[in-house]
Specification:
By secondary structure, the protein is mainly alpha-helical. The chain is built from six helices and no strands. The chain is elongated, with a radius of gyration of 24 Å. The model has no long low-confidence stretch (mean pLDDT 81).
Length: 154
Amino acid sequence: MPPYDAPVIQQTKVRPPRPVLAALAVLIVGYVTVVAYGPWTDAVSVTGSLIVTAIGAALIYGVWRGNPLAQGVVVLGMAGNLIVGFFEPAGIGWLRAGNMVAALAIAVLLMVPGSSRTWFAGPSDDSAPDPVSASDQPFDLEALWAETDAGERR
């Protein structure tokens, strides 16, 4: 029996570079902290916390996969976090200062290092080519008949 050639989905990117991993670690800790200390008292706040969790998980997954849209949303969110921190009327306390440093670190790690820029720019020239779908490949009837004839002769 000839080997079955199933279509294989080729991965073009293996894993994120270290700066992206560091930004993801800080981002995950931040989202876990927000959700853990969020209000869990009534249905509206639970729904809001679940929505924040879903959005955070989607953004983290997008950054992990190298999606430039996810990178842009996270960087804009971190810039908004910094702006709100500076203009917050209560002043900057230790917790708020830590939050602002984390936001700045995430934005810088996702935008400045060359490996991060390359990660979000798309597949590199040395990455695996896109697989050709089965419908685009030519169908060889002669080879199919030869296999069928060989199988019937046994």
